[in-house]
Fold this sequence. Notes:
With 270 residues, this protein is an alpha/beta fold.
Amino acid sequence: MNAPLNPAQAKANATALFRPDGWNRTIRIGTVVPHADVGPEAELQAMATDDITIHGSRLYFSAMRAGGEMDEKIPHDPVASFAQPPYVDEAVESLAASPLDAVGLAFTSSAYKHGPDGERALIERLRPRARDLPLVSTCLSTERALAKLDAKRLAIVNPPWFDAELDELGARYFEAAGFRVVHHAPCGLPSGQKYITPESLYDWIAKIVAESEADTVFIGGNGQRSVGIIDAVEDTLGVSMITGNQVILWDALRSIDAKVRIEGYGKLFD
């Protein structure tokens, strides 16, 4: 019969048997996303290191339906209402009640609608509801990313479910923010989150860069699959590439001065 372990040995043996439970990760980032959109969380978690977890709060968006299907062109009324009180305020407050380090608003088109000043006003309105946690949003984070990358000639590639008017508003947003836009258009791919592939999006970007001589490409729309081709675009086309979800992760980490290195997802993280 084996002799019983002393308390110190018993504790050491038990600890050796423990499995990771998620709480060993030291950075927790919350996101507010449309109710049927898995894209932001999937891409953020794909880029994240083992130190980071992503936690989402879902806000109803009438242009999306069960299974992630959406209108071929999303209507503007729900885009504008997404950023209006009280629903996004309540979503942020509920999410920020968790033990998080930062919160990101993963929605591009509402910022296009109300412009840079409107996006800043939204953040200020939501800040008290977020327990004063750092709040980042796609387009404000993109502004900071473009400044860091010293973008001179910006090409904007919006999702195929953005219509011409929404696309034009996106160009005006970044022009108002002080950037030169040399190309903007919805990408010429089938409309629907499930239909965007890395290969097809890469080919579309290569065409745009050749025609516009852009030095920086922004992939608008947090639901548009894109982070997997960032390194390929930068390495082979000689431009900087940023995306809606990449900039949220980068800016959230920047806002808390996190000492984390993200590799394989673009020079923005250098």
